[in-house]
Write a structure and sequence with these properties.
By secondary structure, this protein is α+β, with helices and mostly antiparallel strands. It has seven helices and ten strands. The longest helix is centred in the last third of the chain and has 30 residues, at 206-235.
Length: 236
């Protein structure tokens, strides 16, 4: 197999980035056509402030890691976009484009509370499946879950990892709880209670993880209170 030159790599990346896309902190999302399929390309952009060799290794390792998480999630019974191609020359994942609604938008819509709670319980069930297989999403919010044909599709595993640690799973739980509190305030209590119900139906260690989540939340609150006190004392 022929290796692409640096010039060819850069020209290819420039052509991609000139198309309509969505920029993130670490990557660009580009809707495109690939061999007749409508796809979404996730391209990790080179960072000029990093040494090139380190930057290449970091972007490639993150590309490989996210791809493994997406595929492992499918194997665990959680719907994710199908991956068509992984190109390490440009740190690009080419995956199925999902035409669906964000859970965030559905929970903030005029849909009935009963319908919303059904989706929230399903989120809990699916996250339980992820955690049962030691998959940590890392950015568990209602903006990273789509609804297509009344089924959930989990996206954006860029901050995820594989971990058996109860604490990592507890942090994932707190991320979705924080999302309910900040984005879906009206029914936050109903949503989190229903999420827990769904989670417990599929996650064998659910009670241990919930107990750890309470401890992690208490630590975070204590740290925040100490920071506030410190700022107050310094201002005197």
């Amino acid at each position: 197999m022929f290796q692409k030159s640096e010039k060819e790599k850069n020209e290819g990346l420039i052509n991609l980035l000139n198309k309509e896309n969505k920029w993130g902190a670490e990557a660009v999302l580009l809707k495109d056509d690939w061999l007749g399929f409508q796809v979404m390309k996730k391209i990790r952009i080179p960072k000029s402030y990093r040494i090139k060799q380190i930057d290449d290794e970091l972007r490639n390792s993150r590309t490989i890691s996210e791809s493994k998480l997406i595929m492992a999630s499918r194997d665990a019974g959680v719907k994710t976009p199908f991956i068509f191609d992984i190109d390490l020359d440009s740190s690009t994942i080419t995956m199925e484009f999902i035409e669906g609604k964000l859970v965030k938008d559905v929970l903030n819509s005029e849909a009935t509370l009963e319908e919303k709670l059904q989706y929230v319980e399903l989120i809990g069930e699916q996250v339980g499946k992820l955690h049962n297989n030691d998959i940590i999403h890392g950015d568990l919010t209602t903006s990273n879950i789509l609804i297509k044909n009344r089924e959930l599709v989990f996206i954006d595993f860029g901050l995820g990892k594989f971990s058996q640690a109860i604490e990592d799973k507890a942090v994932d739980i707190l991320l979705i709880k924080k999302c309910f509190t900040s984005t879906h305030t009206k029914f936050e209590s109903d949503y989190f209670t229903t999420f827990q119900k769904g989670y417990m139906s599929t996650m064998s260690e659910a009670k241990s993880i919930f107990r750890r989540a309470i401890k992690v939340e208490a630590r975070a609150r204590h740290l925040k209170e100490n920071q506030i006190i410190g700022v107050y004392l310094l201002s005197e």
